[in-house]
Structures are given as structure tokens and as C-alpha cells.
Design goal:
Elements lengths: L1 H17 L6 E16 L11 E17 L2 E12 L19 E12 L2 E12 L5 E14 L2 E11 L12 E6 L2 E4 L2 E12 L11 E17 L2 E17 L6 E19 L2 E10 L9 E2 L37 E11 L4 E12 L9 E16 L2 E12 L1 H4 L8 E10 L1
Parallel strand pairs: 13-15
Antiparallel strand pairs: 1-2, 1-20, 2-3, 3-4, 4-5, 5-6, 6-7, 7-8, 7-9, 8-10, 9-10, 10-11, 11-12, 12-13, 13-14, 14-16, 16-17, 17-18, 18-19, 19-20
Length: about 425
């Protein structure tokens, strides 16, 4: 597969060079980051089993062929490497061409026909701020555009069952409607997503689930004003899932009844700001085996929050039992301040509190802890930024299972630029 992708990329470059210069315009861009960080006491015990010191990098290169205002071909390529890692091309005398570090992040055609915009291929999409979806996917989106409204229909191919008798039964598909209505400085975005599979047992994201008929009904509300902004997101998850009980030949159908609520905002005061947010995502009550009450998105959800409990800038691991970017069975609240010291320096400090709402098979409900995050961002020059990060979690019983002998902490730096 990797050789095929590299071959296609080479063919694309050759064709671009061979075509007349007047045939299309080219747009180039990209992003680079290099990070060095340490994460200690993340394992939920004092064994140091997950203690980590690491340096890594990411490069993204963007190329767009612009044939007209109504017709573009967009490509984004990504390279990742951990310094010194033989598997990612980071060791001395590495031959990165033979390492599994390259991927096509996006490749899609973007064109307009009248009032409709179409995007076909591997493309990005955000639904409900990432509480539902924030990812790249293979599929099609068709958006009707009019003054004050965008109305997209989106098809995401989550899993392809393959070829053969009844292989289509294993397909998993997402279908979404996401209209946005704008009213001056305010907007409302209702969302409807339907996830379906006749037999999802082959998809690794839904092990043990057979027939899936799950829907998400959500709403985003945004209001901007002179000195800040406020936002709200609410999502209800319903439908049914056929679950195969372990050791049984019987498949039970269970109802899905879950929800997520989130609200946040920011107030600007001169060169400073005060910001905050709260989110609440339901978990499963251990006494209700006949229904699913945990807010769950099998794949596609990505919502970063605290540095230690919610991935943050160094998204390698999170503290024990935290939900990371897959928001479920968690209530979290944040208050923070940002202060622009000068044109080149900004300091942001955040306080987070989080807890698990329900007991699960592996964890008990209770406080995950209170986390303090401090980020200093220094603009070295135009487009080139240096972040210095420090984070400390005063861990609760839900993080350590009743033993909080050592608290997680994180220190690191990130050099980044975009063009």
C-alpha cells in the first residue's frame, strides 16, 4: 500500500510538471512541529510503568491544484517521526523512505455546481466541535449554499466489509446533516447523524456489536459580541444495538439512551481574557444491562481539553482512567486566564476539575482530580512559535483507585510554524 501511495504521488508530480503552466494554478502550504516532553506518574500507580521522555516531529505539506474558482484538487501529506525510533525513521542513518511514517491525510476534489459545493475523497470534517466528529474520512459531502445558510449532506464510509457473499453486511456507514443558520454575530447548527451496519462484528471499533442503528441529534449555538463569545453544544444519542453476549449464541438488542451537554465562553479585557467551559457526558449505570447509557462514538470523536487528562499539546497518553479525547462518562469544568505580555509573549493558565460519573468494569466513579496547566507562547519570528508547557494533576481516587501516592506531571516544549 505504501509503495502504491508513493507511486501515485510521483505520478501526480510528473503530471503537474508536464501540463501547460496556464492549465491551473498551484497553491502550497504546510505545518511543522518538533516537541520534547516528559510525562511522569501517568500509570495510576507509583511503579513508573508509563513514565516517558520523548522527542518527536510532524511535517504536513499541502498542495492544491486550482483550475478555477469553482474547481480545486486538494492534497495534504503527513510525515511523523519519533527521534531515535527505528520504526518511524528517527534513528541515526535512517532511510525514511522505507519506514511506515508517511500517510495521505487528505486527497479530494472540491467543486461548485450552481448553489451546491461537492467534496469527494479523503476530507476533513468537524461535527459538534469534535464532541461528535473531528477527523479525516473517506466519503462525499454535498453542501447547498445560500445567504445566511450552509446545508451539507455528508456520507462517511467508516468500514468496508470487502468482497464476497454477504460481505456488504459488514459495511459501516455514517450519514449526516449539518445545516448552519447565521444571524448577524450568532449562529445555530443543528446536527443529525445516523450510523448503520447490518453486521459490525468485523469492525474493530465495535467488537461484540452486530446490527447497529444509532442516531445522534445535536445542536451548536454560538454568539459573538464585542468583548468575547459564548457557545453551547447538546447531543442526544439514541437507537439500538444488537450485542453478542460473551459465551452465548444469543444476540440481545439493547436500547441506546445517552447524552452530552457542554457550554463555554470567553471574555476579553484589554490584553487579557477569562475563559472557561463545562461538559457532561453520560456513563453506563452498571445495573442497566438492557440498555446503553454511556455517550459513545465508536470512531471519529476528538475533543482535546486538559493537558494531562485530555491530551492537550502532547497527545501521546493521558493519566490513568481519564477519557482522553473520547468524551464519555465524564464531567469536567475549566476556568482559565490568558494574558498577552507583549506582541511576542502570551501566558495562559488553566484550572481543570474532572470526575467519572459511573462505575465501569475497570474503574470506579469518583474524582479524577484537579489539574493546573500553564502554557507560555513566544513568537520567535513571524509564523514561528515556541511553547513552554507545565502541567500538574492533584489526582483523585478515580485516577489511582484509592491510592494517590504520586501525582502525574508533565513538562515540555514545542517549536511550530505554518506557511
Amino acid at each position: 500500500m505504501k509503495k502504491l501511495l508513493m507511486g501515485l504521488l510521483a505520478v501526480g508530480v510528473v503530471l503537474a510538471l508536464a501540463m501547460p503552466a496556464s492549465a491551473f494554478d498551484s497553491e502550497f502550504g504546510g505545518y511543522f512541529r518538533a516537541r520534547a516532553y516528559m510525562q511522569n506518574n501517568f500509570s495510576g500507580s507509583d511503579t513508573g510503568a508509563q513514565d516517558l521522555t520523548r522527542t518527536d516531529m510532524r511535517t504536513r505539506l499541502f498542495y492544491t491544484a486550482v483550475f478555477s474558482e469553482d474547481f480545486k484538487f486538494v492534497n495534504k501529506f503527513e510525515f511523523n517521526s519519533t527521534f531515535g525510533d527505528v520504526n518511524t525513521g528517527g534513528e541515526i542513518a535512517s532511510n525514511t523512505g522505507n519506514r511506515d511514517i508517511f500517510r495521505i491525510k487528505n486527497s479530494y476534489v472540491n467543486f461548485n455546481l450552481g448553489s451546491f459545493n461537492f467534496m469527494v475523497g479523503i476530507q476533513p470534517r468537524v461535527l459538534n466541535r469534535g464532541f461528535l466528529v473531528d477527523t479525516d474520512f473517506a466519503g462525499i459531502s454535498a453542501t447547498y449554499k445560500a445567504p445566511g445558510i450552509d446545508f451539507p449532506f455528508i456520507w462517511m464510509k467508516a468500514y468496508e466489509g470487502g468482497q464476497g457473499d454477504n460481505a456488504n453486511d459488514n459495511d459501516v456507514d455514517y450519514y449526516a446533516l449539518k445545516p448552519t443558520f447565521r444571524f448577524g454575530n450568532s449562529s445555530l447548527t443543528p446536527t443529525l447523524v445516523y450510523m448503520y451496519s447490518k453486521d459490525a462484528t468485523k469492525w474493530s471499533a465495535t467488537t461484540g456489536d452486530k446490527k447497529i442503528q444509532v442516531y445522534f441529534v445535536g445542536l451548536d449555538a454560538d454568539v459573538k459580541f464585542d468583548s468575547g463569545s459564548v457557545w453551547f453544544t447538546g447531543i442526544y444519542e439514541g437507537g439500538s444495538v444488537d450485542k453478542i453476549r460473551t459465551g452465548w449464541t444469543l444476540t440481545d438488542s439493547v436500547d441506546v439512551r445517552a447524552y452530552l451537554l457542554a457550554v463555554g465562553g470567553q471574555v476579553n479585557i484589554g490584553t487579557a481574557d477569562i475563559h472557561g467551559q463545562i461538559f457532561y457526558a453520560t456513563g453506563d449505570d452498571t445495573g442497566t444491562a438492557d440498555k446503553v447509557e454511556a455517550f459513545t462514538v465508536p470512531r471519529g470523536q476528538m475533543y482535546y481539553w486538559a493537558e494531562i487528562m485530555g491530551y492537550g499539546i502532547f497527545d501521546n497518553q493521558v493519566s490513568a482512567n481519564a477519557c482522553a479525547d473520547q468524551i464519555s462518562n465524564t464531567m469536567a469544568a475549566n476556568i482559565g486566564v490568558g494574558f498577552k505580555v507583549s506582541d511576542a509573549v502570551k501566558i495562559t493558565a488553566d484550572l481543570w476539575y474532572a470526575k467519572l460519573l459511573e462505575d465501569t468494569k475497570f474503574t470506579q466513579a469518583g474524582t479524577l482530580g484537579t489539574e493546573i496547566d500553564v502554557v507560555l507562547t513566544y513568537s520567535l519570528m513571524k509564523n514561528l512559535n515556541l511553547d513552554l508547557v507545565g502541567a500538574y494533576l492533584f489526582a483523585g481516587d478515580a485516577t489511582y483507585g484509592g491510592s494517590n501516592s504520586k501525582n502525574p506531571y508533565e513538562l515540555g516544549t514545542r517549536l511550530s510554524f505554518s506557511f
